[in-house]
Design brief:
Layout lengths: L15 H7 L5 H5 L2 H7 L5 E8 L8 E8 L4 E5 L6 H8 L5 E8 L2 E2 L5 H6 L2 E4 L11 H8 L7 H11 L1 H5 L10 H14 L4 E5 L7 H16 L3 E5 L3 H7 L2 E6 L2 E7 H5 L2 H14 L1
Parallel strand pairs: 3-8, 3-9, 6-7, 7-8
Antiparallel strand pairs: 1-2, 1-4, 4-5, 9-10
The structure holds adenosine-5'-triphosphate and magnesium ion.
Length: 283
């Protein structure tokens, strides 16, 4: 890394952004990550977060003024180093972590602080990073859990899921706990899709999978998106994520560092140097 993304002065304040702004050195993707640009572009968004501050331990903020939006039909990727707050952002959007300040809206409705079940009832599905299947239940039972709000739609929804993941149909009577990591990921995504969500929040769907399965997951995500489901995807596999997403955010230390189309971020020299180079080497 040639220069740190964030510097703090003696008061602990982040001054890097102010400095670069003062010298007019913001790249297009850095400029797009500023609040002014967010306010212009987030108009009418399906999911929107404004100036989010959230954390786990009192007095320690993990999200430190994060802006985000997802327009209807988009597939948006969120990348960034370990501990940047990517999972925390998804959890906060889904109502699992209290919002300390800022706002979360869905289709213009203020849902700041709303519990997860309210978001589920409004068509938001969430697939967490870990422990995302019921291992002692069969695949079919896992799918039933996904449709508990509308049990009558089970067959129709299961047919849709099997069409995306045929293996889940073939192995429907098998225990989810007996599946490989890649197969479990399909179960987790399938279960979230059972309730016919309009938005899917995916936390590292390709993590821990073999390269072939990883590719499969990205292809499935594009297909799911093509069926009309808007997707927010957090990924460690940054390059692959940027290749398939419409837009991407680079999150660093709880704030947006860069945002642009996936293609532009992949070709941004600073993003390559700071995030893609090291991540690519770590693979
Ligand atoms: N349950 C928790 N209690 C306290 N601190 C937590 C908790 N979960 C996460 N954190 C802290 O919040 C910070 C951000 O974590 P988060 O999981 O959001 O990062 P991430 O960007 O998803 O990282 P990774 O790429 O490793 O998944 C980290 O410093 C982490 O230690
Ligand atoms: Mg995470």
């Amino acid at each position: 890394m040639s220069e740190p993304l964030f510097e703090v002065d003696e008061t602990g304040e982040d001054v890097t952004r102010a400095q670069t702004a003062a010298t007019g050195e913001l790249s297009p993707a850095e400029k797009a990550a500023t609040r002014e640009e967010h306010l212009k572009l987030a108009e009418g968004a399906l999911v929107r977060a404004d100036d989010l501050v959230a954390g786990y331990v009192p007095g320690v903020n993990i999200l430190r003024g994060c802006d985000f939006y997802l327009q209807d039909g988009e597939l948006v990727g969120i990348i960034g180093p370990n501990g940047a707050g990517k999972s925390t952002l998804l959890k906060t959007l889904f109502g699992l972590i209290p919002v300390r300040s800022g706002a979360v809206t869905l289709r213009g409705e203020d849902l700041t602080g709303a519990p997860a079940h309210k978001l589920v009832s409004m068509g938001v599905g969430y697939v967490p990073q870990n422990n995302n299947v019921f291992p002692s239940l069969t695949i079919e039972e896992n799918m039933q859990m996904g449709v508990y709000l509308r049990p009558k739609s089970f067959k129709e929804r299961f047919d849709y899921v099997i069409d995306l993941f045929p293996l889940l149909g073939e192995r429907r009577k098998g225990k989810a706990g007996s599946l490989s990591g890649g197969e479990r990921q399909m179960v987790a995504m399938g279960r979230a899709l059972m309730m016919d969500p309009s938005v899917l929040l995916l936390d590292e769907p390709s993590a821990g999978l073999s390269p072939a399965y990883q590719d499969e997951v990205f292809i499935r995500c594009r297909r799911i998106n093509a069926t009309g489901v808007s997707i927010i995807m957090v990924e460690q596999n940054a390059r692959r994520c940027l290749q398939i997403c419409d837009r991407g955010y680079v999150l660093d230390q709880g704030r947006n560092a860069y945002t642009d189309t996936g293609q532009s971020l992949m070709n941004d020299p600073k993003v390559i140097e700071l995030y893609l180079g090291t991540l690519a080497k770590a693979k």
